[in-house]
Design brief:
Layout: E1 3-7, E2 18-24, E3 30-36, H1 53-70, H2 88-98, E4 106-107, H3 108-114, H4 121-130, E5 142-143, H5 157-166
Parallel strand pairs: 4-5
Antiparallel strand pairs: 1-2, 2-3
Helix pairs in contact: 2-4, 3-4
């Protein structure tokens, strides 16, 4: 079983409806996802396997680093990553994403070129969508060719905007749309 820690930001309207889930399975690889926060997720979901102490430690490590990032206290992540899923191209995209410095952005075309296939702009979008460790592997730093905010599953571009604003990387008066 996997342990999940939910991080959310409550505001003047009450508890947040969306949260970031941080989990790690027995492989020790963390996973991060933005999702609707389950009503029952008040803290951590208990694990039923005491042998998952390594996974628990990595999930807590990732959760701590994400909280520090959200507070503006962290610009790089040190939690060990071992994403085993994904095609070879997706793996190259995720490696290219990790090279984008905090506070900077790259276009989908630039990431496609860095991953070895300059024409694979849409495939970069699909790799971002499949990113198992969002924020830590910073797919939010990828923007449209004209500097507009695109992607992020079309419905969550506001999350991308908030992350880029936190990093001081929100392009000028960035347009927000759902396509790549």
């Amino acid at each position: 079983m996997t342990e999940v820690h939910w991080l959310s930001e409550d505001d003047e309207n009450g508890p947040a409806a969306e949260a970031v889930g941080v989990s790690a399975a027995d492989t020790g690889a963390p996973a991060v996802s933005a999702a609707d926060k389950p009503d029952a997720a008040d803290g951590a979901v208990e694990v039923d396997d005491p042998d998952l102490s390594r996974a628990r430690a990595i999930a807590l490590w990732a959760a701590r680093e994400l909280m520090e990032y959200a507070l503006g206290e962290r610009t790089t992540f040190t939690v060990p990553l071992a994403p085993t899923a994904g095609t070879p191209f997706q793996q190259r995209v995720w490696a290219a994403l990790r090279e984008i410095p905090y506070g900077e952005t790259r276009t989908y075309a630039e990431i496609a070129a860095a991953a070895g296939n300059p024409r694979a702009v849409r495939a970069v979008g699909q790799a971002n969508r499949a990113n198992p460790v969002a924020v830590i592997i910073p797919c939010h730093r990828v923007i449209g060719a004209r500097g507009d905010l695109v992607g992020y599953d079309g419905k969550r571009v506001h999350i991308k905007a908030r992350l880029l604003a936190l990093e001081g990387a929100l392009p000028g008066e960035a347009a927000v749309s759902g396509g790549v």
